[in-house]
Amino acid sequence: xxxxxxxxxxxxxxxxxxxxxxxxxxxxxxxxxxxxxxxxxxxxxxxxxxxxxxxxxxxxxxxxxxxxxxxxxxxxxxxxxxxxxxxxxxxxxxxxxxxxxxxxx
Amino acid sequence: xxxxxxxxxxxxxxxxxxxxxxxxxxxxxxxxxxxxxxxxxxxxxxxxxxxxxxxxxxxxxxxxxxxxxxxxxxxxxxxxxxxxxxxxxxxxxxxxxxxxxxxxxxxxxxxxxxxxxxxxxxxxxxxxxxxxxxxxxxxxxxxxxxxxxxxxxxxxxx
Lengths: 105, 158
Known about the structure:
- The complex is a heterodimer.
- In chain A, 74% of the residues lie in helices and 0% in strands.
- The radius of gyration of chain A is 18 Å and the shape is elongated.
- Chain A starts with a helix and ends in a 13-residue tail after the last helix.
- In chain A, α1 runs antiparallel to α2 and α2 packs antiparallel against α3 (61-92).
- Chain A is an all-alpha fold.
- Chain A has a single domain (4-99), classed as Helix Hairpins (Orthogonal Bundle).
- By secondary structure, chain B is an all-alpha fold.
- Chain B has a domain at 1-68: Four Helix Bundle (Hemerythrin (Met), subunit A), CATH 1.20.120.
- Chain B has six helices and no strands.
- Chain B has helices at residues 2-11, 15-35, 39-64, 76-98, 116-129, 132-153.
- Classes of the chains: A mainly alpha, B mainly alpha.
- At the A-B interface, α1, α2 and α3 of A face α1, α2, α3, α4 and α5 of B.
């Protein structure tokens, strides 16, 4: 029997993997992909809770609307972020975060 | 399997292989959404993430012509710190889930009268009644993002 905890555990593990990627990888595009992974982990737990908390025999659709908004905002964020990365690459010829340190004291 | 491909995203040194693993991971996530009776969200996940967003990622990776990262000297302090924080997070997750008795219940069945198309219908009704204003704000946000990307992509800002 699949319980709510199973879904929450998968969601948490997915978030952990994304978190590890952000901390360990030094390629800015891969860091960006790991951010997407973390957003999706949050979506999974939202959908699981929405399915768990039934309203009149239907899933709680408020949670799914929030997931819809997260997906929309994430798509816009990816477009802007990748444009910034392309501009950065034109200026510095690198996607390695340790080579981008002009703001470092 | 989905977690496995997610780990591949982090471990692969070639960005293209990493992005392709991310597509498979997103498809697995869409399957989980469908299992949770959220068919609309599952379809959106495939269309927006596995479709649009990942095409954008692959396009940028190919445009910048990224090679597999040469093996750089890993900063051992950052490695240990990162792994420590991640392990702490995972440990906390397991501890919290163990103390969450509600989570041990299985999912209650949804009412038998509902069918597949009801899901999209209900999401649409909620979206356009209770969440009409946020929906339009998100529309404005997407417009602003589009203009921002066009401005950022111009070669010279004069």
